[in-house]
Amino acid sequence: MKNKFHPLLCCNYTAACVRFCLLLLCLWPVLRLHAQERTVTGQVQDMAGRSLPGVTVSLKGTSKGAVTDAAGRFTLAVDQSPATLVFSFMGYETKEVPLEGNASVTVKLQEDVKKLGELVVVGYGTIKRSDLTGAVASVKAEDLTTAGSSTVQRALQGKVAGVQIESAGGNPGAGARVMIRGVGTLNNNTPLYIVDGVQVTGIDNLAPNDIASIEVLKDASAAAIYGSRAANGVVLVTTKSGTPGRTTIRLNAYYGVQQLAKKLDVLNAAEWARVSNAAHDAAGQARLQIARNPDSLGAGTDWQDEIYRTAPIQSYELSIGGGREGSVYSVSGGYFNQDGIVQVTGYNRVNLRVKSETTKGRFTFGETAILTRERWTDMPGGWGGQGGNPVGSAAKMIPVFDVYDPTAIGGFAGAYGPVVNVANPMAQLHLESIKRDSNKVITNVYAQAELIKGLTYKINLGYTYNGGYGYDYQRRYQVGTLFTQKTNNLTETRNEAHFLMLENTLNYSNAFGKHSIQALAGYAWQQNRYKYTYASAQDLPDGIDQMDAAAGTRNSGGNMTESRLISLLGRVVYSYDNRYLLTASFRRDGSSRFAPANRFGNFPSIALGWNIANEAFFAPLASTINQLKLRASYGVLGNQEIGDYRYQQSIATGLSYVTGIDQHKWFGAIQQSFVDPNIKWENTSTFNIGTDLGLWQSKLTLSADYYRKRTTDILLEVPIPGSAGAIGNPVVNAGIIRNSGFEAGLSYNGQGNNFTWQATATIATASNKVEQLGTGGQIITGGQPSHHGSATTTTKVGGEVGAFYLVKTDGIFNSAEEVQAHVDKDGNLIQPNAQPGDIRFVDANGDGQISDADKVYCGSPFPDFTYGLGLNGQWKNLDFTIFFQGTYGNKIYNGLRMDLDGMNLEFNYSKATLNAWTPENHTDFPRAVINDPNYNTRVSDRFLENGSYLRLRSLQVGYTIPGAVMQKLSLSSFRAYVSFDNLFTITGYKGYNPDLGRTGNILDRGVDYGHVGYPLARTATVGIQLGF
């Protein structure tokens, strides 16, 4: 692969290093300690021996303090004797330890049952962990920052049972698509995201180091408080807050490189010419002029080497936090830059976050503000050719052709002659510039007052803004004889999304005798506004990208939408003697997206829990089983993410028709579709049973759940005759999908001499079944894998969503006798165009011919189970983290191989074609014949592959500088590490990446188009984490 030096890259890297060094030099004199002090070092652990990062260590009677690092270690200067250290951490009992002359201490903190609930964030507040009855998964900050991921959701992949996180594209800055507990609708399956109490559209713009914890609400007991927005689950994100005491400064920085993780095996120029000649000879056609002398061609152009590169990735984050009793603050800022492994592409992000909270008597005030600036340089989507985007074109472009042609308009060579229109991928990348900018703001302010003992009123005002700008400039070009654009064209877009919310809640908490109760009541109001505009212009002068300079056609347009939601909500959490638990919640939502008759929906839930380990009869087992809880819940959730104005009639203008004797053309408008004015919510009823188990003081923990979901009133387009006079089909509530599954998370903590470790495992299953669809006989198809061929997926009653229905193959005809023997019941040839070497297809419906009517069920795009396996540990100052993630049992339709292995078009081909069937060499690969008269490349199980995989998702090794050295450097912590992402993948899939995810359409899941994706990168980074 060619790696070309670029002076701009060197300048950027040098500038980043200079900024980093200047920052350290500026901070150094401020943070030096001048007093003569002795140094005390130590480590803080929980009772199971797990390291506790973030513990506040203070010198009693003074303002001096420190915070433990990721390994639970701390260093503190002590200038008094005798001295006592105070260790405090949320969820644990505060502990005082006299030093008694010790220079090093190891401290273990006991979980505080009274404070334990502070660690579990749920909707509109927190619940004691012991009182939790819902299916809630928590991810700690250290699990997010050690994965080396550029986005938060990718760092979550495989760490939460029941949460499927898939690639939304490997391009720089691409996020992930998240699906909680399988598919529940044919519409939007995206969960609801809440950041510090504010609803957002996604969390990939957040810096991973800014996050304190993530809670995933999976069942109705946990999620029903969010009502109509919670059918797909809820992801709650809490960002980091300051802690009282000494001001802490953290600096995290890393720099790394990325490379293509896997290269496809395609033919070089000489090999392609030989295969092409054989294919034309078999078809009785003249050989292509460019292929007539294979030996003179050599290797030709390796188009994959041309477009892929080794690309840098870097991140710098600085945070400051602290405060005093009753007032805390946290401020952070960061810069992230990722060049893509595909030339030209890239992404950068600038983050700024401010968060504070102040308590004065009975009053508490706080705010959060998160500002993000993002910029993408995207890969062009294609010029209408058969290659698709540059990734697809690099695989399919014939290697005989050159990259550059100085005499051509634009300077790039291209294909010519009687070949398929696959574009020069380098020309695509450099002759079209696509950029996107995004400015995002997430902010909220709140005030809280304790009205009487136990009763608190809170008002929360939230606002988000997302302003986007798009730029697409196409230069004029002549690329070969197949791609011509005579003018420079420009398209610019702008969009703005405003979200405003106001919440008023009352919280009551009280404990009396063996009873404990928490109650919540509230009112919420939300408003969404979205505006989009675009403008385009043609025939701009060379080098000028301003609309007003265009000599050709100009166009503009736009749209605007608005919606509102009002809600009443309530929840009661009751515990008797910390043994018997009850949680009940209710939400009533009213949405402007529905007609007045169906505008309001009710979403209740109830859950019961039993802490068996707290029963008297369980006491003899307490030393072994310290936790055993049974949980059960049932509730109804909703989905209002159907788009705006779906119940209202729309009119299309600008249409014309011709009538009368003089055939006069008349312009007018037409009704676009019929609508159902009575459409209503999609409702999901959920049943969940689960257990939480802890053994040997929670050295071993297990959380397991079984669930069943049934979504009714799914919105579908029901076909109507064209004679009805509308362009589209009406949208009605006409679908039912059932979903069920099992999920479990396991953790074990061990320790030995100077060594502690933790092993984790998650596993989840999810299956779905369509119970109703449209009028009963409706079938929905999707997933057309290439520029040719039919749909690959079918959704119908009795089956699952987006299942693969394909024509089955039955080997290869090895003789003319076998072809003649493949007949129907009447003795007619089933494949009249077949010859020896062609594929034998199964006539499943027995009609004597091979067509789409012969498609049968061949597999599922959904895995039998997903899993994650993690191991982390530390030995003295060394630490490591290793994490595997994968799926099992899912299928992938390889649309790219459909083109590379096919002979119906003049592409480049895969190496497999070198082993094509011949009369002398009977193989399992069909004969080489151009134009494919037997249609060997039809949509069939030939291209359906096993999508299971096991991936080494991340590997990180770190070293924490000893306390004595840090003291001399005036640092509280100093850790250096190396990290590797996507080191290897074990899979039988032949494409770039089995974790190809899906498009926005659930029916396309598991279909690798090949011409629209972006390959996976393997990444290596080095980084430092400093504390002052």
From TrEMBL:
GO terms for cellular component: cell outer membrane. It is found in: Cell outer membrane. Its main location: membrane. It is a multi-pass membrane protein. Keywords: Cell outer membrane, Membrane, TonB box, Transmembrane, Transmembrane beta strand, Transport. It holds the Pfam family CarbopepD_reg_2. PROSITE patterns: TONB_DEPENDENT_REC_3. Residues 451-983 form the TonB-dependent receptor-like beta-barrel domain. Residues 129-234 form the TonB-dependent receptor plug domain. Belongs to the TonB-dependent receptor family. This is TonB-linked SusC/RagA family outer membrane protein. It comes from Chitinophaga japonensis (Flexibacter japonensis). The lineage of its organism: Bacteria, Pseudomonadati, Bacteroidota, Chitinophagia, Chitinophagales.
